[in-house]
Design goal:
5 helices, 25% helix, Trna Endonuclease, Chain: A, domain 1
Length: 215
């Protein structure tokens, strides 16, 4: 299956089916040329979701995020995604018949993201995006749990932006130790981008992660 349009259609249908299987609301935009393919209802909120085909490559899944078009005045223009356009990116890997759900903070401004399935041969551990951390059912459950927790705490924003959320990333984000461990690669990238991550255990501050000091 080499036709990109065919792959995109298959991915979108597989993701919509997986979302419906989990009991989520699945909405389709009536107008064309939107930057998102579906709208999913999770935890009482609506999320704009771009659907992507993931290619099995080496020890993981390669997800191409950039797109290009030809402009008569600008030539070939390459675009990526940002928080003003999408809230989540859903990935379907046909080689293993599995869906994944990625927060916009992980993909914003990037040409490609690699979800690792196997351990690297060089034993690298830092700055990895483990596919298991973003498997669709678990990612949906964690997002809904964070929404519930934020509502109880007074309505603070969840890690992925919503349709009405501020597009700017927070200067500090608080995360439980269990969630931090499962999404270590994601929070490493957030810290590298300039955010401060406060890690809590049993509801109390335990450690702090931030960007490396510039020399």
């Amino acid at each position: 299956m080499d036709d990109p349009n065919h792959k995109g259609n298959v991915a979108e249908l597989a993701i919509a089916t997986e979302a419906a299987r989990l009991g989520l609301s699945v909405l389709k935009p009536l107008t064309e040329h939107e930057r998102y393919d579906l709208v999913l209802g999770i935890g009482g909120r609506l999320y704009r979701v771009q659907c992507k085909w993931g290619k099995r490559s080496g020890g993981g899944i390669q997800v191409r995020l950039k797109s290009s078009y030809h402009s008569p005045t600008r030539g070939y223009v390459i675009t990526t995604y940002d928080k003003s356009e999408v809230d989540l990116v859903a990935v379907y890997c046909g080689d293993i018949d599995r869906c994944y759900l990625l927060p916009v903070e992980l993909i914003a401004g990037r040409n490609m993201v690699f979800l690792r399935l196997d351990r690297p041969r060089n034993n690298q551990r830092a700055a990895l995006n483990w596919a298991a951390a973003y498997e669709f059912p678990g990612a949906v459950a964690q997002l809904a749990e964070r929404l519930t927790g934020s509502q109880k705490a007074g309505g603070s924003n969840p890690p992925s932006s919503t349709l009405n959320a501020d597009a700017r990333a927070p200067a500090q984000e608080e995360v439980g130790a269990h969630l931090f461990r499962n999404h270590f690669g994601y929070y490493m990238e957030c810290a590298a981008a300039g955010n401060e991550i406060l890690i809590c255990r049993h509801g109390k501050p335990y450690a702090r992660l931030g960007p490396a000091a510039l020399k």
